[in-house]
Structures are given as C-alpha cells and as structure tokens.
Amino acid sequence: MCKRCDWGTKNELMISYHDEEWGVPLHDDDKLFEFFVLEGFQAGLSWQIVLNKRENFRKAFDHFNPQKVAAYSEDKIQELIRDKSIIRNKQKIRACVNNAQRFLEVQKEFGSFDRYMWRFVDYKPIQNCFKTIGELPAKTELSDEISNDLKSRGFKFVGSTVIYAHMQATGMVNDHLVDCFRYREVQ
Fold it and tell me: What pTM does this model have?
C-alpha cells in the first residue's frame, strides 16, 4: 500500500482525485476554468461536498465552457439557483457568470488564462517540502498577490484562501506531503 496525503484517503472519490488530479501542473484553459469555478463554490465548504457534486456542476454549467457560462441569461441563472443537484448559492452562481466574463477578458489580454496564472510562479511549480498536513498554509503572500490582481480585474469569490486552493489543485504549488507517493511524481 502506498502512502498518501492524509486528506486523500477518506473515500474512493477523494483517493482518485488525490492520485490523478490534485497537484498535477495544469495548463488547459478549459480545465483551469473548471477548477476556478469549483474552488469558488468551495468557499466556506469542504472539498468533499464540491467533489461529490462535480458531475452535476459539469452538466449544469455546460461542462465549464467559459464562453457559454459568460453568456448566461437571467433565466439561466434562475434555473441554476433552483437546481438542487448543485450548490445553490446565488452569489456564487452570479460570481461564476461574472468570472467567466472576466476569464475571457484575461484570455484576450494574455493569450490564455494559463499564461496569466502561471506567470505568477515563473511558469514552473513551487516545490514545497511539508511533512504534515498541519504545515500546509491556507494562503500565502503569493496567493494574496494573485487574489488582489484578480479582484482588480473584477473577479468575485477569489479570496487568498480560494486562490491558494486553486494553486494547489492545478499544480502551481506541489503541496503533496514529502512522504506521499505523488510528491515525486508531480515534481
């Protein structure tokens, strides 16, 4: 049996997410948008809740196509607010539509959202060396900087903690514990 980060052992869904996705450097704009949306919905909740509803989110939000989400009408927003299969937080749903619009603006300005985000880490993952889950930060000076930049561009639900979680999920930082089998694999 291989050693995993403690949080990644709770159930099969978390194990799969930990082993296959979390911390892997991600450069696909559509997938980055998906994680960006999901991290926003996680604010104040556990990742397990969001992960359990991930497939429902994909269906409800047109597989996280930023062009489609950016064009959502008020009728579509109201439909999402009534959708019991997702997290029905009105502010987060409206923020998602707003963020899709801002996402497209960033793509236009930088050529891709990937190029925009990864420039903050000089286009290579930060390699941390944490031994216990208690050492993992909730946010950093860098996540503060990214959060502030996103807010200045009009993004919503992009606090520093949300942004650090996004950085972890998309491999901008390697926060697998050093004794986790994935630590070296994602280096």
Answer: 0.96
